[in-house]
Input
Amino acid sequence: MRYFIEFSYNGKNYFGYQIQPDAISVQEELEKALSTILREEIKTTGAGRTDTGVHAKKIFAHFDTGKELDDQLTRRLNSFLPSDISIKRIFPVKDDFHARFDATYRTYEYYISLEKNPFTQESAWQHWKRGLDMDAMNEACKILFEYEDFTSFAKLKTDNKTNICKIYKAEWEQNGSELKFTVSANRFLRNMVRAIVGTMVEIGTGKLKPEDLRKVIEDKNRNAAGTSAPGHGLYLVDVGYEF
Output
């Protein structure tokens, strides 16, 4: 049987979601806990692979097992896992339903603190030394909808077969001294959101004009875009499916 897990995690202590050699990952912790409790080797497939330090408020993974699971597995798994990983629910799906390939959209949020804040040092980019023009950044957001090839925001030397993405939403909001960038798309390239945010900040500080974003995208060159924003300000907040 195939099961889906809905969970969340604080990415501070992890080198991303996906298992990698000689580095602790969320996937490793999840599979170790499942395998111990179910007494069989469990492999999971996640909805995406977040970078080092990136958080997830809502993410899914699937796994297969020959056992029929009871309602107590969520509680037992939460008891076994470290405090920075939380299981929300576990439920059965069709045997061919896929956590990554059947996702219809993904939504990320990025947080920037406009003042020096000791309580958000590890959860938002501290960008208080220079002001940011949110109106210019939102003007640039509208340009993102004109394109689908985001090679300029893709991490170099990856196994991507295509850099085509369809962005559904992109906007900046301010709440007090904090800026939040929300972006939704059918898929994201590795490092894409952080590269977009880094470029938007260059627009917000006046280094680039909003219309310069067109040339950045059309160059299809990672060097044309801004430096990637720090990972600790990024959160995967939703993954959509047609269950």
Summary: Strands lie at 2-9, 44-46, 55-64, 85-93, 105-113, 125-126, 167-175, 178-185, 234-240. The longest helix spans residues 26-38. The mean pLDDT is 96. The chain has five helices and nine strands.
